[in-house]
Amino acid sequence: MKKIIHKANDRGFADHGWLKAAHSFSFGSYYNPSKSHFGLLRVLNDDIVSAGMGFGTHGHDNMEIVTIPLKGALAHKDSLGSTGTIEFGEIQIMSAGSGIQHSEFNASATEEVNLLQIWVFPKLRNIEPRYEQKRFNPENRNALQILVSPEREGEHMWINQDAYFSLGDFDAGLSDTYHIKKEGNGVYVFIIDGEVIVEEEVLNKRDAIGIFDSAAFKFETRGKAKILVIEVPMQ
Prior knowledge:
- About 0% of the residues lie in helices and about 55% in strands.
- By secondary structure, it is mostly beta strands.
- It has a single domain (about 1-235), classed as Jelly Rolls.
- Strands 1-20-17-22-15-13-14 form a 7-stranded mixed sheet, with no helix packed on it. Strands 2-3-4-11-6-9-12 form a 7-stranded antiparallel sheet, with no helix packed on it. Strands 5-10-7-8 form a 4-stranded antiparallel sheet, with no helix packed on it.
- It is globular and about 45 Å long.
């Protein structure tokens, strides 16, 4: 087993006034050659967007983009004709494929929105762009729930990569084992909230650990915790 520790205060930070962003990997003006990606995981941004503000229409191509609101709601509009609001408890995925234009704005005029935006390199390039949004069961506690999977069938959303996203809310004092779903994949474990011991490493809110060359990892919660596990090919 090999491990990489990324502490919360070692992330890149940008303050644009209306946008406060923490970058787990090189992004925008933040560049760290030792933190450019983890396998095919390219971006993990922790964004806080002021009320009524957001990202105007802009383009992406050949990237799988997953958005997870942690607080508040985000208004979405894209060149596929998709419009709507993504709220806490919902997940959005876009296959940018051959090219897509979209905008994202805080849906509230009074409250800020906090979201994770995650980019994964695609398996197939130049596919037809695609958008999907889904609400997941908030009652499913003390277990990692698969949100995103390369498998076409099931309650999860599909991703154009051999990648899996799992999210879980846990009570204190619980332990579990995550088994790698595809041989050769690694996992990037991001602690959204709480204190968690992952393979003997104590991690707190917004800390992360990358694990590879292993078939599984063990974790234990010291308090209530929210954990995101991103499993991706390492090359």
